[in-house]
Amino acid sequence: MTDKDWMRQPMIEGEVRRIARQHHPHLDGLTIAVIGRPQAAKSKGKVVLAKTSVPSEATGALIQDAMGVVHYVIEVGLDAWAALTPAQRTACLDHELCHCLGVDEESGRPKLVGHDAEEFGQVIRRHGLWRPDLESFAEAVASQLERQLIRMGATGDPLGAEARGGRP
Ligand SMILES: [Zn+2]
Asked: Which domain holds residue 31?
């Protein structure tokens, strides 16, 4: 093994199980493998911290003897991962688990779902919350900002130590 090898990440898999138990009970009993890649992928010029996929049926058959049925694979870019705080790592894995819908009853295959909302900041600045999905997304951002403002009032710390993973 060299530091160029992609390797399974048992420690991160443990974290994934913990977060799944807490926030994604519908994934109970499913196997979610985590593979570390030495260098994070890039997509459209942006670093991809992590990416979740469903193994193809061919890959599933190949790995079945070694691992049983693997429902989801989370690929983590280890160089980018190393720079994250513990709180950011938890948020990153929670994000990936949000993509996992569980097994489709009809097809028997695990399903993935896209993000709640995707938009450019400048479009929101120019046109506001022009789609219903943006509105509910903005509500989530607003409630988080409110919590940060309350923290700032309490500590005088505009970012909030908690938001940075409890580091000073
Ligand atoms: Zn995502």
From this structure: 1-113
